[in-house]
Amino acid sequence: MTATDPALTALAQGWCALSLLHGRIEAHIERALQTRHDLSVREYSLLDVLSRQHDGDGGHLQMKQVADAVVLSQSATTRLVTRLEDRGLLERYLCPTDRRGIYTNVTETGLKLLAEARPTNDAALREALDEAARNPELAPLVQVVESLKAPVAPIGA
């Protein structure tokens, strides 16, 4: 295969379309969350991921698992956690069984904001998908996204 191979060109075009769809959706959701809840998409995602933790074996996530779930580096995730902690939306505390471990939990204020923001996130996602479906290049990708019924893989899997 060469760089001008039609299969590679089609693959690159497909990737560009997927990237475009992702960018449009993320930008639409970002505007809605920022306007209505003073949250970024990354902040919303972090609150959502951390709100799904539970007590017991495997219930609390390590920072690497959180970083993977929100698609950020560990250092960027740590900075994001710090910003949300400064806003009173998250709290950190030492693991009771391993003093080296630090847990991060969503506060009641954070859970309330997440519950208020979830309908905004969902509506903005629907709006962005509906808009993208009107674009002939993006419509097939929207159909694929809408047909996915598989649950998201567990964090850390």
In spatial order, strands of the major sheet run: 1-2
Structural class: mainly alpha
Instruction: Name the helicity range.
Output: 55-70%
Quickly count the helices: 6
What letter string, H or E per element, gives the SSE order? HHHHEEHH
Q: Roughly how many Å is the radius of gyration?
A: 19 Å
Low-confidence stretches: none
How many β-strand stretches? Answer: 2
The average pLDDT score comes to: 88
The percentage of residues in β strands lies in 5-15%
Report the end-to-end length measured between terminal Cα atoms. 34 Å
* Largest sheet descriptor: 2 strands, antiparallel
Shape category = globular
Explain briefly what this protein structure is.
The protein contains six helices and two strands; from the N terminus they run H-H-H-H-E-E-H-H.
Which keywords apply here?
single chain, 157 residues, mainly alpha, two-stranded antiparallel ribbon, 6 helices, 2 strands, globular
Account of the 3D structure:
This protein is mostly helical and 157 residues long. The protein has six helices and two strands, in the order ααααββαα. Helix 2 (41-51) packs across helix 5 (108-133), helix 3 crosses helix 4 (74-86) and helix 5 (108-133) packs across helix 6 (139-147). It is globular, with a radius of gyration of 19 Å.
Describe how the helices and strands are arranged:
Blueprint (H helix, E strand, L loop, with lengths): L5 H32 L3 H11 L11 H8 L3 H13 L3 E5 L7 E5 L1 H26 L5 H9 L10
Antiparallel strand pairs: 1-2
